[in-house]
Amino acid sequence: MKLDELDFEIMRILQTDGRKSFREIAHILGKPESTIRLRYNQLVANNILRVVAIPDPKQVGFEVMAILCLKVDVVYLQEVAETLAKVEEVRFIAYTSGRYDLIVEIYMKSNDDLIKFMTGFLPQIKGIKECDLSIELKLFKDTYNWMNKA
To answer: Which one, of 13, 15, 4, 51, lies nearest residue 23 by Cα?
Structure first.
């Protein structure tokens, strides 16, 4: 699907408020509501856009956010990523270049849960050679409207 400026405008508006109605978006952009609905449905059908609720982890009981930087034996890279992807507390996994092979973001309810994960679960995963753990101490920015300046 080739995107045009209208598609980008719809996405920018939804990044600011994912609950905006097609009618409101149509009014803002000066387009028919049917056009906005059609474009939205195409964006969703083509996996270009998802509109989801994003709860604040701390407000719903996840007190510890950590970043794991993993060095993994290349033979096991896919398997390690797939194993971690099945863990409910894992929010984000990416292959990376540079010093580490995988970056993993996890949310835990407590430090005790993090310790159990780090000492009980993680060592059982075949192929992990090294793990560097960083715990979020203070959040300065967490946004999903990065496209608004594009």
So the answer is: 13
**Closest by Cα among 100, 72, 98, 99 to 84:** 72
Whether the CB-CB separation of 103 and 68 falls below 8 Å is answered with: yes
Distance CA 37, CA 23 (A): 9
The pTM of this model reads 0.79
Q: What is the pLDDT of residues 43-69, one digit of tens each?
A: 999 999 998 888 888 889 999 999 999
State the residue for tokens 């083509």.
Answer: 46
Element (H, E) at 95: strand 90-95
Tens of pLDDT along 17-37? 889 999 999 999 999 999 999
Spell out the domains of the chain, with CATH numbers in brackets.
5-45 (1.10.10.10), 58-135 (3.30.70.920)
Distance CA 110, CA 61 (A): 9
